[in-house]
């Protein structure tokens, strides 16, 4: 399967609810909207990435997949 995504927008904000380290609260969080496609299908991905306690976290979801044929 060939496919890929292009980032349509990236917005980075400070989120004080995330435990970034064992001693501090808050982390920079990037909200990403991407347009994706492959094998005649197109869809959008929306996900969030951030660094917490030395680990990169990614939360996401797909929306509206459309396929031709």
Walk me through what this model shows.
- The chain is mainly β.
- It has one domain (about 5-65).
- About 0% of the residues lie in helices and about 80% in strands.
- It is built from no helices and 4 strands.
- It has a 4-stranded antiparallel sheet with strand order 1-2-3-4, with no helix packed on it.
- A hairpin with a 5-residue loop joins strand 1 and strand 2 (about 25-40).
- The radius of gyration is 15 Å and the shape is elongated.
Task: Give the topology, please.
Layout: E1 4-19, E2 25-38, E3 41-52, E4 55-67
Antiparallel strand pairs: 1-2, 2-3, 3-4
Order of helices and strands: EEEE
Structural class by secondary-structure content: mainly beta
How large is the radius of gyration? 15 Å
Mind describing the biggest β-sheet? 4 strands, antiparallel
Shape call:
elongated
State the oligomer: single chain
Tally of helical segments: 0
What is the terminal separation in angstroms?
16 Å
Q: Stretches where pLDDT falls below 50 for ≥5 residues?
A: none
Q: Please give the share of residues in helix.
A: under 10%
Estimate the strand proportion.
Answer: over 45%
Mean pLDDT: 87
């Amino acid at each position: 399967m060939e496919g890929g995504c292009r980032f349509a927008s990236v917005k980075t904000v400070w989120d004080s609810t995330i435990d970034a380290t064992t001693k501090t609260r808050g982390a920079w969080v990037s909200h990403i909207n991407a347009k994706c496609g492959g094998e005649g299908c197109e869809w959008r991905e929306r996900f969030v990435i951030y660094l917490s306690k030395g680990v990169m976290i990614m939360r996401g979801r797909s929306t509206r997949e459309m396929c031709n044929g």
